[in-house]
Design the sequence.
């Protein structure tokens, strides 16, 4: 399932199946698929068209470098469920939902790691 088009227009990023079983890119130039992880879903591009933010298990956000295939956990929760995110235009922040019984919109700032409503 496709989730996001890269800002440079060269790639689509999505997840393998409806159960979020990995991150996959599709190159519009070469018309090829590339599986980057075997976990996670709901990926969105950063403005640099190289990095992707995705959620894993409804509990953690990872930043994935699509060139090196290295994924780094940048935020996680124990009890809540965090939803798909959107990355800000400057790539410094992400907006996402955090739910227990009600949904709230939260802001994650990447350089400081701070999170708040």
Sequence:
């Amino acid at each position: 399932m496709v989730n996001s088009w890269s800002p440079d227009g060269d790639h689509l990023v999505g997840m393998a199946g409806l159960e979020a079983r990995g991150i996959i890119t599709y190159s519009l130039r070469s018309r090829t698929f590339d599986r980057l992880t075997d976990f996670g879903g709901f990926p969105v591009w950063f403005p640099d068209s190289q990095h992707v933010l995705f959620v894993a298990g409804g509990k953690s956000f990872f930043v994935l470098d699509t060139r090196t295939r290295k994924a780094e956990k940048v935020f996680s929760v124990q009890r809540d469920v965090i939803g798909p995110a959107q990355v800000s235009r400057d790539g410094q922040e992400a907006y996402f939902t955090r739910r227990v019984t009600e949904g709230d919109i939260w802001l994650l700032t990447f350089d400081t790691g701070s999170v708040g409503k």
Q: What stands out?
A: The two ends are 29 Å apart (CA to CA). The first strand starts at residue 2 and ends at 5. The chain has one domain: 2-116.
